[in-house]
Amino acid sequence: MSQLNYRDRIKVVFFDIDETLIVKDKDYLPTTVKPAICQLKANGIIPAIATGRAPCSFPPQIKELVAETGIDLLVTMNGQYVSYRGEALAKHPIAAEKIQQVIDFLEQHHIEYAFVSNHAIAVSQITPIVRSAMDPLRTDYHVDKDFFKTHDVFQILPFYDASKDELIANSGILDGLKTVRWHPHSVDLFEAEGSKARGILAAIRHLGFNIENVMAFGDGLNDVEMLSTVGVGVAMGNAHEELKKLADHVTEHIENDGIYRFLLQSGLINENNEITGEC
Prior knowledge:
Blueprint: E1 12-15, H1 33-42, E2 46-50, H2 60-69, E3 73-76, E4 81-84, E5 87-91, H3 96-108, E6 113-116, E7 121-123, H4 128-134, E8 142-143, E9 155-158, H5 165-169, E10 177-183, E11 186-191, H6 196-207, E12 214-218, H7 224-229, E13 232-235, H8 241-246, E14 249-250, H9 258-265
Parallel strand pairs: 1-2, 1-12, 2-3, 7-8, 12-13, 13-14
Antiparallel strand pairs: 3-4, 4-5, 6-7, 6-9, 10-11
């Protein structure tokens, strides 16, 4: 394994969740992830999360990982909400009038949808398609078409497949918004300027670091801006091929300890350190 030298440069490492930290469909968290994060902290490097998920929809194993390792820098909902030590650093809810325009169109075309807030998810209706997308994330969502009138909504999740992409693109409802597909039957819909990169920039401004001091790991198309912006962008071996093309490095598959192996290769953790998993 060739060695890199990022130890003196990197101050923060951001990790995507699904297919980067955890294999969603298998609910599998590699055993090397927790000790690697603990070693980062021991070496004075801040571990952080950058995900398309809302905090309320973190998988149980990730919630446990966050609690046990003390991860307290979170870029969530594709950069729409950023928090540090429990306090919001940046938040970008979608305007209620824009949400009304979107859902009027979706209902006209019989497309179900979900509202995503920091603490809860509400859906327009529970259908087999909605369940197929949502249940792997969380099952305690509820039906409330008026949820956006009393809560900040950071993302809308319309439930449609790729056959309706052109319809949505030509509808006019995307003015000021953008979509990123995360499931065969659903997309994330959020502010056009929103991205994990925007959230990371807000976080490092608060911490007083430069973007060159940041490393990030990802696997999907919602990681494009993040890996293109940070000082060192790392695509997982199981990442989308387009992401691999723009990443600075491609590591091993998630199930082959890709995170641990690259942190070791880049000098951010030390193989000689005892791997106990205790922070």
